[in-house]
Design goal:
Strand content: 15-25%
Number of helices: 8
Radius of gyration: 32 Å
Oligomer: single chain
Helix content: 25-40%
Largest sheet: 5 strands, antiparallel
Length: 300
C-alpha cells in the first residue's frame, strides 16, 4: 500500500512539473506581456515608411523595457514553441486583450468571432472541423498543415467557400513567406483551386466560387516557406474557419406597375389617386395658343 502511495505522489509531482519553465525562460504572464508588446510594435512599424528599420527599432525597445536580451527572448520563445498548449493559451489572452482595447476605442472588431460563432447548418455555415490553433516552423513536416472536408447532403453546386484565418509571425530573421491553397474536387474528378500569399500579420481570406457541378470534397493546405534556422521562425495560424455560402439565383425584377405603385406609395400617394392620375394622362391635353403681345402705339 505504501508503495502505491509513493507512486501516486511521484506521478502527481511529474504532472505538476510538466510545464515548469526551466531557468532563463520567462513565466507565462511575462511571456504574454512581451509578445503582446512585440506584436504592437510590429503594427506600429507598418504605419511608417521604413518598416524594416522601425520593426527592429521597436523590437529592441520592447526588450529594453523588459530588461531582456535577444538570446533570452529567443530561448523563451523556443521553449514555448515546444509547449504549444501554453503558447495557445498566451495568444488567446493576447487576442482577447486586443479585442477589448479595440472595442473601448470604438474600432470595428474583426470577423474572426463572427465566423467562429456560426453553426455548421444553414445558407451561411461554418463547416470547419479541424483544430483552432496551428504552429508552423520551417523544420521538417512542421512547415505545413492540410485539411479535407467531404461534401454532404447540404452541399450544393455553385456554393462559395471562404477560408478565414488569423496569422501572426514571430521571426528572428529571414523573409516571412507562406502560401494558402484552397481547392475543390467535383464528382467528375475535375479540380478548381485558388491561392493567396501570407507575408505579414493579420486576417486572411481565401475565397473559391464553385461552378454548376456536384462537389466531392474541399481541401486546402497552409505552407510556410523558408530554410531551416536555429533562431525562431514561427507562424501562428489561429481560429481558422471554413464558411460555406449557398448560391442564390438572382430574382427577376418587379413588374412596371409594381414599381410604379411602390415608388408612389413611398411618396404618400394612394392607389386610387394614382389610377385617377393615369386615366387623366390618357386624355389628350388641349393647349391654348399663346396670345401674341401687341405692340403699343406711341401717342403723338
Amino acid at each position: 500500500m505504501k508503495r502505491y502511495v509513493v507512486l501516486l505522489f511521484i506521478i502527481a509531482m511529474m504532472a505538476s512539473c510538466h510545464h515548469k519553465q526551466p531557468s532563463g525562460v520567462l513565466s507565462e504572464s511575462n511571456m504574454q506581456k512581451v509578445l503582446y508588446e512585440y506584436h504592437l510594435s510590429k503594427a506600429m512599424a507598418y504605419q511608417t515608411d521604413r518598416v524594416e528599420y522601425y520593426k527592429r527599432y521597436y523590437f529592441l525597445e520592447v526588450l529594453k523595457k523588459h530588461k531582456l536580451s535577444e538570446e533570452s527572448f529567443e530561448k523563451s520563445l523556443l521553449w514555448y514553441s515546444q509547449h504549444t498548449d501554453l503558447l495557445y493559451k498566451i495568444y488567446e489572452n493576447i487576442n482577447k486583450k486586443l479585442k477589448r482595447e479595440s472595442m473601448a476605442l470604438g474600432v470595428v472588431t474583426s470577423d474572426t468571432h463572427y465566423y467562429s460563432s456560426l453553426s455548421n447548418k444553414g445558407d451561411t455555415a461554418n463547416i470547419w472541423s479541424g483544430r483552432s490553433f496551428y504552429l508552423l516552423s520551417p523544420v521538417g513536416v512542421n512547415n505545413r498543415f492540410s485539411f479535407r472536408i467531404d461534401a454532404d447532403s447540404t452541399s450544393r453546386p455553385k456554393d462559395v467557400y471562404l477560408l478565414h484565418m488569423t496569422a501572426k509571425y514571430v521571426y528572428a530573421e529571414g523573409q516571412r513567406d507562406a502560401m494558402v491553397n484552397l481547392s475543390v474536387t467535383y464528382v467528375d474528378d475535375s479540380v478548381q483551386s485558388v491561392h493567396i500569399p501570407i507575408h505579414g500579420d493579420g486576417e486572411f481570406r481565401c475565397e473559391l466560387n464553385t461552378v454548376d457541378k456536384n462537389i466531392k470534397y474541399v481541401q486546402g493546405i497552409v505552407f510556410l516557406k523558408g530554410a531551416y534556422s536555429e533562431r525562431p521562425k514561427l507562424l501562428f495560424i489561429m481560429q481558422p474557419a471554413m464558411i460555406r455560402f449557398h448560391h442564390k439565383e438572382k430574382e427577376t425584377g418587379p413588374k412596371t406597375d409594381d414599381v410604379f405603385f411602390e415608388m408612389d406609395s413611398v411618396s404618400g400617394i394612394n392607389k386610387d389617386s394614382l389610377a385617377a392620375t393615369r386615366d387623366v394622362e390618357r386624355i389628350p391635353r388641349l393647349h391654348a395658343k399663346p396670345i401674341p403681345l401687341r405692340k403699343s402705339r406711341r401717342i403723338p
